[in-house]
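User: I've been trying to design a sequence by hand for this structure and keep getting stuck. Would you show me what you'd pick, starting by listing the structure so we're on the same page?

Assistant: Good idea, let's start from the same input. This is the structure you sent:
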């Protein structure tokens, strides 16, 4: 007489195997979702891109040491980060917060700033004071573009330090 053995897994083994398969399916689904999202993200954001068609300004204080009695206390850095030339750049507003006395007047550089280049200019004002200060500058050009930037410094009498 011949005996035939049929292997039947226990009930606990089937539950464990089913749980492992469910976890693997969830991981595979999560990985597939991440891959599809990362591949489609450039397609989604490309439609919302706005291309700059004019000048755009990045404004700040240029690091250095200056003397406020020489009418060149610090230099203002104006960079054209747009894609066209800015004509007749003008410093239309300079306001300083802190213990600083200065005469405020409009500075006109009458220079063109090509895309990607930086203009360094002095506000040609008299400065004297003591302590930290924050300078806020507004720059305009003939194209009607306005940019605002600020920078911090320290003044001790007529000596100005911009980090």
């Amino acid at each position: 007489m011949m005996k035939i053995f049929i292997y039947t897994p226990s009930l606990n083994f089937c539950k464990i195997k089913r749980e492992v398969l469910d976890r693997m399916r969830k991981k595979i689904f999560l990985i597939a979702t991440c891959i599809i999202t990362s591949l489609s993200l450039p397609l989604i954001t490309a439609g919302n891109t706005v291309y700059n068609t004019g000048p755009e300004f990045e404004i700040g204080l240029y690091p250095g040491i200056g003397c406020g009695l020489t009418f060149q206390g610090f230099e203002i850095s104006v960079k054209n980060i747009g894609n066209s030339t800015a004509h007749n750049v003008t410093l239309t507003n300079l306001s300083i917060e802190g213990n600083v006395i200065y005469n405020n007047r409009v500075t006109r550089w009458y220079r063109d700033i090509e895309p990607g280049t930086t203009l360094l200019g002095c506000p040609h004002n008299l400065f004297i004071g003591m302590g930290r200060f924050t300078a806020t500058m507004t720059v305009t050009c003939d194209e009607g573009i306005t940019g605002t930037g600020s920078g911090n410094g320290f003044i001790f009498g007529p000596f100005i330090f911009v980090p």
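That's my pick for every position. To get oriented when you compare it with your attempt: Confidence is low (pLDDT under 50) at residues 42-50. The beta strands are 57-62, 64-67, 75-80, 90-102, 107-108, 118-121, 127-140, 146-157, 159-162.
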